[in-house]
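Structure ticket #2291
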Amino acid sequence: MSNLFTPLKLGKLALKNRVIIAPMCQYSAEDGAATDWHTIHLGRLALSGAGMLILEATAVNPRGRISYADLGLWDDRTEQALARSLTAIRKYSAMPIGIQLAHAGRKASTEKPWDGGQVIAPDQTNGWLTIAPSALPYDNDDPTPQAATLDDINDIINDFIGAAKRAERIGIDVIELHAAHGYLLHQFLSPIANQRNDQYGGNLENRMRLLLDIVDGVQAVISDKMTLGVRISATDWVTGGWDLDESIALATELQARGCQFIHVSTAGLSPLQEIPVAPGFQVPFATAIKQVVDIPVIAVGLITDTQQAENIIASDQADAVALARAIMYNPHWVWHAAAELGEQVTAPPQYLRSSPHGKPSPIK
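Resolution: structure written out below.
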C-alpha cells in the first residue's frame, strides 16, 4: 500500500487518504451568501476522491471579507445559503468537509482578482474601512486601516465563535482557523503588522493571544465530534517578521489548547517578502513543526506530482498534503494518483467507465 493512500485521523474524524483539498477563494458569493457556483464547484471537488475538502476562506463578519464577493457565515441568511449547497453536495458525496473561518483585516476591501484585485477605498463603491492590529496599511499606497480597540477585538472573537456554531449546525466536519497569508490573525502574530502596546501586542505571548483566545472560545462551543485546526504562515519571508521559531512555539501552544491539526503555509504579510518559490518549497516548514508536535501536520505549496506527494508522506515530512491549483486544474488528480500508485479511491458509479482499464479499478 502506498503511503499517500493510507488513512489518517484528525481528532475523531477518519480520512480515507492523505490528500486534502486546500481552501480556494471563489469570489462568487452575493453579500456573503453562497450561490449556485459554490454548489457546482464544491460538488465537483467533493467527487474527487480526496480525503477531505476544505471550503474557501469564509468571513466571520462582513468587514472581514477579502472582497465584496467573498463567502461569509455571519447570519441566518449566509448560513442558510451555504446549507443549501452542502445539502446538494452531501446527497452524492460522503467526503468530510471542512471550512476555513477567516477575517481579512487590513487586506480586506479589494476588487475580484480577475477585475484587477486592487484595494477599494472606503469611499468607493464596494469598499469599506478595514481594521487591523495597528494603523499600518499592507502597502504604503493603501488606505490606512483602523487600529482595533479592545471592544473590536472582543467582537471579532465572538464573531469567530458564532461562525463556528453555525458551521457545526449545517453539518461541517472540520473548522480551520485562518491565521496565515497576511490576514487578520496572522497580522496580530507578526511584529511587522502588530505594533500594539497592550495585552495583544509586543512580546510573542501577547501577539499569540488573539488566536489563542479564539481557539479557546471555539473549543468551548463546538461538540467533541468536531475537528479544530489552524492554518499558519510559518514565516513572513521578511527580516524581522514572523518566523519559524515563533511558529514552532505557536504550534506547541495550539496542541496544548486542544487543536487537532496544523496546516503549514508561508508568507502573505508584507509586500517586501522574498520567497524562493520552487516545487514543495514550504514542506520543510511543515517538517520542522511536525518534529515538535504530536498532532497531524499538513504540508502545502507547489505539491503537484504524484510521486512528490507520496515521497512527502513516505519520508515523514508531513502527515498529509494539501493541493489547491493543481486539483482545480485537474479535479481527478486523486484518481490519477491512485492509478499511478496502484491504489483505489471511491468514485461515483456514474464515473466507473472512465477507468483507463475499462473496469472499476483504480476507482471504485
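Closing remark: Residues 357-362 have pLDDT under 50 and may be disordered.
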